[in-house]
Amino acid sequence: MSLQAKLDVFKADFEAGKPPYNVPASVIEVMHRATAELIAAGAAEKALKAGDKAPSFTLNDPDGNPVSSTELLAKGPLVISFYRGVWCPYCNMELQALEAALPSFRELGASLIAISPQTAVNSRKSVRQNHLDFPILSDVHNDVAAAFGLRFALPDYLVDLYTNLKNDLPSFNGDDSWTLPMPGRFIIGQDGVILYAEVNPDYTRRPEPEDMLPALRKATYASAD
């Protein structure tokens, strides 16, 4: 089953109020409103695209070790997934799909990292729960996400909803700004230019990992010339 098919099955059950979430219809309506407003604002159009120069960055892994995009690009192309956090089931399913595709990325000489605003403790939880063999980096205040054009502030009514649901983003992220990244997937070539970009303000929609392979192959062949 494809990643999106799995997400669609989960979404249908979640929005039908099935266990274990048992979410009432009023909550779903608020979530739909927030997503529709983000789409209408044209948020995704402001994100970096293929052909743009990617910002360089250094972020810490869950053990506090700095990971530099410049150093990773010296070894080969870089695949980056921006995601919301361990509390987001859609994100966890995406991480698992990326883990399954990791051998294909490595065969093409690429490194894979995931970036979220969550604290190191929650990144370790993400790695452990999803059985990941690639690093999750902590993007404090969503600063790197902002450099890629992904950061947005939650509207007040969504902050109220998350608070009522005890989805306490300030605790998850160690930051009281109530910002999140739109889910984004990027491939950066060794020259620092973005070769592939997929950003969606609807967090229930994620591209298939296999969709990135043509761009990765092109990057690999280019670096071999």
UniProtKB/TrEMBL annotation:
Source organism, top-level taxon: Bacteria
Catalytic activity: a hydroperoxide + [thioredoxin]-dithiol = an alcohol + [thioredoxin]-disulfide + H2O
EC number: 1.11.1.24
GO molecular function terms noted in the UniProt entry: thioredoxin peroxidase activity
Gene Ontology biological process terms, A to Z: cell redox homeostasis; cellular response to oxidative stress
Keywords for the protein's UniProt record, in alphabetical order: Antioxidant, Disulfide bond, Oxidoreductase, Peroxidase, Redox-active center
Coiled-coil boundaries: none
Database matches in PROSITE patterns: THIOREDOXIN_2 (PS51352)
EC class of the enzyme, as a word: oxidoreductase
One Gene Ontology cellular component annotation held by this UniProt entry: cytoplasm
Thioredoxin domain ranges (all copies): 48-221
Recorded family membership: Belongs to the peroxiredoxin family. BCP/PrxQ subfamily.
Function noted in UniProt: Thiol-specific peroxidase that catalyzes the reduction of hydrogen peroxide and organic hydroperoxides to water and alcohols, respectively. Plays a role in cell protection against oxidative stress by detoxifying peroxides and as sensor of hydrogen peroxide-mediated signaling events.
Name the record gives this protein: thioredoxin-dependent peroxiredoxin
Organism annotation: Gluconobacter wancherniae NBRC 103581
